[in-house]
Amino acid sequence: MLHARYSWQPLGELLVSKGLLTQAELDAALTEQKRSGRLVGEILVESGVLSAFSLSRALTEQHGVELQTAKDTELGGTGAQTPTVWRPLGKLLVEQGYLSKLDLRGALEKQRESKGRRLLGEILVADGYLSGIALARALGEQNGIALHDDTELDVETVVKTAEPGQVVFQVFEVSYAPRYKPHEVIYESPSFMEAVDFAAEFIEDANPDGIEIQRSEASGRETVWTYSDSRAAATARSRKDLAETFGFDPTLWGTAAAG
């Protein structure tokens, strides 16, 4: 297992920068996502623009783990056979048997102790909770794709730690009545995706009045993601999915939080 430095990028920007798809292809998938409500990753893989393994590998990078294979070698994979409902990663890992609840709790505690300097994916892989390929497979499932099982694939796993001074995304519980009031930080990570994952799971389990994610760095902070229980209740009445509840695909393909 190798180690490297981590720097967060929105997923769409990451895929374009690696030459895995063009900006026009990304924009077309985002337009289709708004029209259909389907997950962007699902759309890209099913349309043949991007392979399932390329998407899963990019997703693992956003969680602090890079999978390196021999040139032109990759796992096969397909889009889901039925429309995928996005689920928080922690819940998916436990429900699908990748981790026990106790293991997940232990990994989250290690991340809390790091005060946002370590990524959850990096901890899970580096500390032996699961393999890099298992993380890629789980992230694929979360985003509507299925990787084929291939134990013969030779993969080098690189775990990444955050750069000194790296942006940190902090999750706050907030109250809106009788007036706006932010509470203590309940989670922090160098990865926006991990912050959204935690926030979505917290919303499912705790039903808070509101949640904010703030982007914090030396030059200041800004709110990049919000949730309110009243808005979610109105959305639920119209039977919209999670992506629409939060106003965008939780994977965040654009640059809104990248600054």
Instruction: Report how far the terminal alpha carbons are from each other.
Output: 31 Å
Largest sheet, spatial ordering of strands: 7-6-8-9
Report mean pLDDT, rounded to a whole number: 77
Global Rg: 18 Å
Uncertain residue ranges? 234-259
- The geometry reads as globular
Going by helix content, strand content and strand pairing, the class is: alpha+beta
Beta percentage is 15-25%
Q: How large is the count of helical segments?
A: 11
Please provide the ordered H/E string of secondary-structure elements: EHHHHEEHHHHEEEEHEEHH
Number of strands: 9
Question: What can you see in these coordinates?
Answer:
41% of the residues lie in helices and 22% in strands. It is an alpha+beta fold. The chain has a four-stranded antiparallel beta sheet with strand order 7-6-8-9. It has a three-stranded mixed beta sheet with strand order 1-5-2. A two-stranded antiparallel ribbon has the order 3-4. α2 (23-36) crosses α3 and α4 (52-62) packs across α8 (132-142). The longest helix has 15 residues, at 192-206. It is globular, with a radius of gyration of 18 Å. The two termini are 31 Å apart.
Task: Please sum up the structure shown.
Helix content is about 40%, strand content about 20%.
How is the topology of this model organized?
Elements: E1 2-6, H1 11-17, H2 23-36, H3 40-46, H4 52-62, E2 65-69, E3 77-79, H5 89-95, H6 101-113, H7 120-126, H8 132-142, E4 145-147, E5 155-162, E6 168-175, E7 181-189, H9 192-206, E8 210-217, E9 220-228, H10 229-237, H11 242-246
Parallel strand pairs: 1-5
Antiparallel strand pairs: 2-5, 3-4, 6-7, 6-8, 8-9
